[in-house]
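Justification of resources, computational component.

The compute hours requested in this renewal are based largely on the per-chain cost of generating structure records like the one below. Each record pairs the submitted sequence with a full structure-token output. That output is archived, and it is also reused by downstream analysis tasks.
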Amino acid sequence: MKSLNGSRIVLRPVMPEDRQRLREILAEPEVACWWNPGSPDHAIDDWLDMPPDSVFVIVHEGAVIGSIQFSEEDSPDYRHAAIDIFLDTTHHGQGLGSDALRTRTWHTSPWKIRSERKQTSKSAFASMSAAPAATRS
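The structure output for this chain reads:
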């Protein structure tokens, strides 16, 4: 998977060498309180065990400042999507998390694909509906 460019951040696929930096962020008390109890090592092991195309690090001004992952269950009985994100506390409140969310969902989410299909279907239906009316006059 390629890197994705946001307005102020870059999302790039997570690599094994990101482990220590992500562990440091997950150890920050204001970040750790949002994750299941356990050590930062356990949390990062779970994070890095996810499918590689679903996990990105968030890079701002050349430094890893957090991570974001996307998952989707498309079974008809349980259809849902989830996004998890964390940023180091020095970057909270600056809109960087929002930028990461927008970038991740816009560039790679099935929502975009479904939205495009829905829009295409609406446009095609509108064209088909308008054609007979235009020929009646």
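The helical segments are 19-27, 29-32, 40-48, 96-108, 110-136. The chain has one domain: 4-128.
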